Amino acid sequence: MGFNANNLLADLHTVNKLATKYLKNGNLSFEEKLRLMYFFKDYGDIGSIFTQEEVSLSDLYDLSITPEVAKGIYEETQMFLNLYKNNRKCLDEFEVKSDCDNYLAPLILKWEKSDEHSQKVYHDYLTLDHRLDNMDERDPDYEELKKECYELYDKQKEASMIARNARMDLERARRKLYGLDNFNLKWLFLLERQIYEAIMVIFPNIEEIKMEEGV
């Protein structure tokens, strides 16, 4: 399944630290916002793990969901749910679209400029190549023009590669943010509530579980 409850527990703790930092400072860096966004992306389908009709004890331990880890998950989700409920107005102001736009803007500009340059060099090459095709090989300028045409061809290939790489960088960045530019903390609230409720079902006596030192 690619799921490990210890990783979930650590990530929940990070979410709480970042949410608390946001409340204190009124903002987060884009990289910090990305961590919240990727938490949702990584665990968005977690319900399929917790809400199976039958989850055996061996299944839980295969996923590292020991009672102690479950208690930690329960407490971290409970902390975030309370944090959100008590500070909903402030946390609902959290947004990432402007950050995403600012992140993509220089990549878009780089691609547009490199693509424009590539097309110009290609046009210049075609013009020169056409001129060469219509020139008599005995013309004293023929060899010089031929050399210039070869050089321009190499420049065109280089410019085309630069534009291609810029486009690939832009597409990678867009895939990185795909579906997340409208992300808000309510998404995390609903996800963590689902995890919290599932843990309560799997471990109905969760409050009685004693945490081991270091968990």
Describe the structure.
The protein is mainly α. Helices cover 74% and strands 0% of the residues. The chain is built from 9 helices and no strands. Helix 1 packs antiparallel against helix 2 (30-43), helix 1 runs parallel beside helix 5 and helix 7 runs antiparallel to helix 8 (142-176). The two termini are 23 Å apart.
- Give the ordered list of helices and strands: HHHHHHHHH
Largest sheet: none
Helix count, DSSP H or I runs of 4 or more residues: 9
Any idea what the radius of gyration is? 28 Å
Helix content percent band: over 70%
Summarize the structure.
The chain is mostly helical. The protein has helices spanning 5-25, 30-43, 47-50, 57-62, 67-86, 88-91, 97-133, 142-176, 185-202.
Please specify the SSE layout and strand pairing:
Elements: H1 5-25, H2 30-43, H3 47-50, H4 57-62, H5 67-86, H6 88-91, H7 97-133, H8 142-176, H9 185-202
Helix pairs in contact: 1-2, 1-5, 2-9, 5-9, 7-8
Features:
mainly alpha; 74% helix
